[in-house]
Amino acid sequence: MRIHLLLGALGVAAVAGTLALRPGSPDAPPPPSSALAPPADIGHLILQLEGDVRALQVVHLTPKPSAFNPTYRPSPFSIDLYDQAGNRLGSYPLDLSRFDTDPLRVGQPLRVEGCEVRDPHIAMLANIPYLPDACSIRICRGDKELGRLENVDYQRMLTAGVNR
Known about the structure:
Largest sheet: 4 strands, antiparallel
C-alpha cells in the first residue's frame, strides 16, 4: 500500500513540476534553439498590433517568404528590432495616421472629422523585415517605449506563425 502512495506522490510532483516550467513561466528555461529555428525562407514579418497610443502589443506574428517592401512615411512611431546583446538592428516607421493618437482621447468614442473616422483603439497589421539575428521588438514613439516583445515570446510567436 505504501508503494502506491509513493507512486501517487511522485506523479503529483511530476505534474506540478511540468506546470511550473510551462512556457511563459518566469522560471521556465528557454526551449532548445532547434525547436525554435524558423525556416530559412522568411523574407518579412507581419505583426498584428493592438492597444492604444499609450501601450501597443504584438498579438500575432506571421512570417512570409516574400521580401520586405519598405514604405517610408515619416512618423513619430517606430518598430525597432534588437539582437540578443541589445543592439538595435533596424528601426522602421509605424504609420498610425489613421488612428486617434491623442493620449487624452484614450478610452473615448470614435472621432468623426468630415468623412474620416478616427479611433483611439489601435488594431492593425504592420510589416517589418525578417532579420535572423533579431530576438526582440520594441514599439516606440520617439524615445518612449509603448510595447515590447522579448526573446522567448518572439521565438514562440515566430514558430506559431510558421505553423499556422
